[in-house]
Specification:
Alpha/beta hydrolase, alpha/beta, Rossmann fold, 8 strands, 267 residues, globular, 8-stranded mixed beta sheet
């Protein structure tokens, strides 16, 4: 992996292939290898950039260690700094779950950097008061207990029980995540803004993807985003839960490939 330094941290990332830039933003509590099937597939046609976000994978928490909170804006600015360092003016930004919210925040701040927007298994609404309390309580728990118990509890929601092939990788990523980084991100997500209005201003084609059996971000959330976006395609991946790109990679990749080809035709 390569790395780049900014004022906040040393950001590690995978950089493979050539052509139009595709920036893959992982979810919580994972790392860039969440996107391994897509890195392998799309680096044949695109320049694929897949970072470990601040406090995840091998990217250190950096300046966040002083504040104990990583806002979605912190993640978004890290990604813009990375694009700057790589000399990339525009990228298709694809994010899953928390990564999708980071993608929305990046677009809200820097719409000129976004060539296309892929929102997978995510949702745009601000956190409720109940949700804020739950995220902060979970942050406290992870700091006290570590990641193992949480990973054991949520694995069947991250990956549908019938997709046993994907479960070991997902479980390893969750257990390997630094609980301090995960807790800081949870506290940041608790304070996120509402992205629904900003979605109505997206001027580039978008793709909304969701697993049919996702209980974290159900199909109804994807349908809401699809309705808000001026130009979007909605794809529901059958026999998948929260991580369709790993559970059903061939189906997910076919949808993403069709979307990326449509952007080339528009160029």
């Amino acid at each position: 992996m390569r790395y780049t330094d900014n004022l906040a941290t040393r950001l590690y990332f995978e950089d493979r292939g050539s052509g139009p830039a595709l920036l893959l933003v992982h979810g919580h509590p994972f790392d860039h290898t969440m996107w391994q099937p897509q890195i392998d597939r799309f680096s044949l046609t695109h320049r694929v950039i897949a970072p470990d976000l601040r406090g995840y994978g091998i990217t250190p928490l950096g300046a966040t260690a002083l504040t104990e909170i990583t806002g979605l804006g912190d993640f978004a600015e890290d990604l813009v700094d990375l694009l700057d360092d790589l000399g990339i003016e525009q990228a298709v930004v694809a994010g899953l779950s928390m990564g999708g919210q980071i993608a929305m925040e990046l677009h809200r701040r820097h719409p000129e950097r976004v060539r296309g927007l892929v929102l997978a298994d995510t949702f745009p609404a601000a956190e409720t008061e109940e949700g804020k309390a739950a995220r902060n309580a979970m942050a406290d728990r992870l700091l006290k207990e570590g990641m193992q118990g949480y990973a054991d509890e949520v694995l069947d929601r991250m990956v549908a029980p019938y997709n046993t092939h994907a479960a070991p990788h997902v479980h390893r990523m969750m257990c390997a995540t630094d609980p301090v980084g995960a807790a800081a991100a949870l506290r940041g997500r608790a304070e996120r803004p509402d992205y629904r209005e900003s979605l109505t201003t997206v001027a580039v084609p978008a793709l909304v993807v969701v697993g049919r059996d996702d209980t974290y971000t159900p199909v109804e959330d994807a349908e809401e985003m699809h309705a808000l976006l001026p130009d979007s395609t909605l794809a529901v991946i059958e026999r998948a839960a929260h991580l369709p790109n790993l559970e059903q990679p061939e189906e997910f990749d076919a949808v993403l490939d069709s979307y990326l080809r449509s952007l080339v035709r528009l160029s």
